[in-house]
Amino acid sequence: MTVHLRVLVAAFLSLALALPALAQVWPSRPIRILVPFAPGGSSDLAGRLVAQRMQEVLGQPVVIENRPGAGGILATDAVAKSTANGYTLLLAVAGPYITAPLLQNTPYDPLRDFAPISTLNGNPQVLVVHPGVPATNVGELIALAKAQPGRLNFSTSGPGALTEVSAIIFIKMAGAEMTLIPYKGGTSAVTALLSGEAHAHFTNPSEAIPQTRAGKLRALAVTGSRTFAPMPTVPTMVEAGLPGFVVETWNGVVAPAGTPREIVNRLSGIIQELARDPVVRQRMEDTGMSPMGESPEEFQAFIQAQLNLWSKFFREYGIKPAGQ
Fold it and tell me: What is the mean pLDDT of residues 156-169?
């Protein structure tokens, strides 16, 4: 063996031994979880539940960093470009993670640029309107939109976000003309609806439930495949007369691609245990979340299935990427 070859082999062995050692001493400093939307929404709540449990288990501060913008793309891209050392994580959300890459040229790839850790929760969306809109059901909203083309608007949480995609699908299926108004995150979009600046919005149950109970918004339908337990009197979109309209969102945790497997597995174990905790499950369910909690392999398969599902959905309804 030449001197040069011996040096290369020694270097390789040193690196191979060092990687497990690095994973063993992790974490030795605070961890960040980037949430792609403003504080107050369901994704923010999910992220804070995860951060609290990680902090308890790992013994290091776990900081939530809300970074809204571009429908969640800014935060998602920031994590994709972060160092893969387990100190920067993403609270992945269906809109920026799945639908946005299918509809526009995002600077990241959901399969290539991330290491899936675990799903956290799933839930339907809720179609809500301002109380001033004279519609008490989906049929009346469609009739109103057709009678006044372009006057009614949908607030959305940004381009490519699931709230916008749902609104586009609704408009196409209803055969009505309504205007889309993008905001910087779901909280801003709901605020616009509460003020009367917007007329309709697809929002998460955690935002819809308290506002509808207070009479500040009116719920017309949920987008799940079956009746939603926290809102038992609200029909599904299918029951409301739009067959095939099933849109469900989710939150999960991912790391940059290349993050050591030992770290990914350890984080996944914490999140899966969190999702099984009866107290946490009840807290999620009270705010309209359905706990999930899957292994990295199951989450990877879920992501691929979601990409396939939405690609098919967009083809069926003629929703094309920007510029096409």
Answer: 88
Instruction: Give residue for tokens 């288990």.
Output: 57
Selection from 250, 229, 225, 224 nearest residue 94 by Cα: 250
Q: Taking each helix axis from N to C terminus, what angle separates 205-213 and 186-195, rounded to the nearest 10 degrees? A: 20
Distances (CA, A) of 308 to 52, 293, 305, 313, 315: 33, 21, 5, 9, 11
DSSP 85: S
3-state secondary structure of 28: coil
Render 165-196 in DSSP notation, one character per residue: HHHHHHHHHHT---EEEE-SSHHHHHHHHHHT
- The pLDDT score that the predictor gives to residue 225 is 86
Q: Please, what is the angle between helix 42-58 and helix 205-213, to 10°? A: 120
Residue 172 C-alpha from the chain's centroid: 23
Chain position carrying tokens 């955690």: 206
**Domain annotation for the chain: domains and CATH numbers:** 28-123+249-316 (3.40.190.150), 126-222 (3.40.190.10)
> pLDDT tens across 187-200, in order?
889 999 999 999 99
Give pLDDT tens digits for 96-139.
999 999 999 999 999 999 999 999 999 999 999 999 999 999 99
Q: Which residues contact 256 (CB under 8 A, 6 or more apart)?
A: 79, 80, 81, 82, 83, 84, 88, 113, 114, 115
| Alpha-carbon gap, residue 85 to 292, rounded angstroms | 25
d(CA 148, CA 241): 20
Short-list 48, 35, 252, 217, CA closest to 126: 217
Interatomic CA distance for residues 170 and 234, integer angstroms: 17
* Mean pLDDT value across residues 249-258: 96
Pair 154, 200: CB distance under 8 Å: yes
